[in-house]
Amino acid sequence: MPTNNRSREDLLAEIESLQFRLEEAEEILQAIQSGEVDALVVSSISGGNQVFTLKGADYPYRVLVETMNEGAAFIDTNGMIMYCNQRLADMLCVPMENLIGTPLGAYVVAEDHDLMDDRLKNPAQEHAREEITLKTATGSHLPVVIFCAAIDLGGKLGLSVVVSDFSTIKEAERQIAIAAERERAIQSVRESEERYRLLADTMLQGVVHQDSFGTIIAMNPAAEHILGKNHEQFIGSNSVHEEHHCIREEGSLSPGMEHPSMIALRTGQQVRDVVMGVFNPQMNQYRWIKIDAVPVFRPGEDQPAEVYTVFEDITEQKLTKLKLENIQFTLSEAQRIAHVGSFEYIAETKTTVWTDEEFRIYG
């Protein structure tokens, strides 16, 4: 016989306890199977508790909500936050466990309270995206865009709220606007450069561009024609090298360092209306040109960074002037020999111009 005799009442009580525990276990299993249980808290051997979450069909959606870049919350018609994700807590600078159970309106600036109240009073109404400002736990203001949609919270209507950080959107818009403006500026510069290039290519005056050392960087077709050399023969050279066949107006040689472009680089001053002769190898003759040299400075610098030289071919004008001077000299000599003078009356100015021999005749 067993040493521990239990009464009938004890046995019935034990059976009743076992039946209760069985029913409780069956209810838990049914709740798990129906998806009503999200996690289990189990006592461990060490005396602590362990939490085991259950993965159901909605698990991917939970992960999506928790990892999305927008804040998300479920609020009841009183505005209480029943659930929120970590992103919303981070945006408001509030621990997530402290955020749940508090009114969302507490984090909305006063100017936008009416808008939030309208959303809470009409949860079933479709709402467009709205721009509002939230105030964080640190006191800073955060512009956001919210989207509200009605949800069923156990037979009662509530709101699903998605919050997008509008400051990020604004910054993206600002960067896009800056990029667009930069592209417009680049396009404008391109068009401007094209217009100036077309002007330089079609103008009759020669243009030579040199750096701070006098090295030729670029030149236009008119310069090539006047100087009798092509682009490849000039680029990389300088005035000191190229102008060794230049002559002054009176016929003496002009050293390269006295070229107007080199003077402009050396002095930082503009040099205007310098006449000099340059040898054109294609024509095998000297051509007379009138030169202007303009130095260019970078902002904040006192030494020229480059120089532009503009010149025109005045050979024909100079030859015409020389012929006229020869004719006048021949006439003067003929009158001197013949002892015949002459004068010219200019009606427009009412002046009389006498020749030298006329002066001599009349003393």
Give the SSE map:
Elements lengths: L7 H26 L5 E5 L5 E5 L5 H9 L3 E5 L5 E4 L1 H7 L3 H4 L13 H9 L8 E6 L5 E13 L2 E10 H37 L3 E6 L4 E4 L1 H7 L3 H4 L4 H4 L4 E2 L11 H8 L3 E10 L4 E12 L9 E8 L1 H24 L4 E4 L4 E4 L1 H6 L2
Antiparallel strand pairs: 1-2, 3-4, 3-7, 5-6, 6-7, 8-9, 8-13, 10-11, 11-12, 12-13, 14-15
Structure notes:
With 363 residues, the protein is of the alpha+beta class. Helices cover 40% and strands 27% of the residues. It has helices spanning 8-33, 59-67, 86-92, 96-99, 113-121, 166-202, 221-227, 231-234, 239-242, 260-267, 315-338, 356-361, and strands at 39-43, 49-53, 71-75, 81-84, 130-135, 141-153, 156-165, 206-211, 216-219, 247-248, 271-280, 285-296, 306-313, 343-346, 351-354. The strands form four sheets. A six-stranded antiparallel beta sheet has the order 9-8-13-12-11-10, with helices on both faces. Strands 4-3-7-6-5 form a five-stranded antiparallel beta sheet. β8 and β9 (216-219) form a beta hairpin. The chain starts with 7 loop residues before the first helix and ends with a helix. The model has no long low-confidence stretch (mean pLDDT 83).
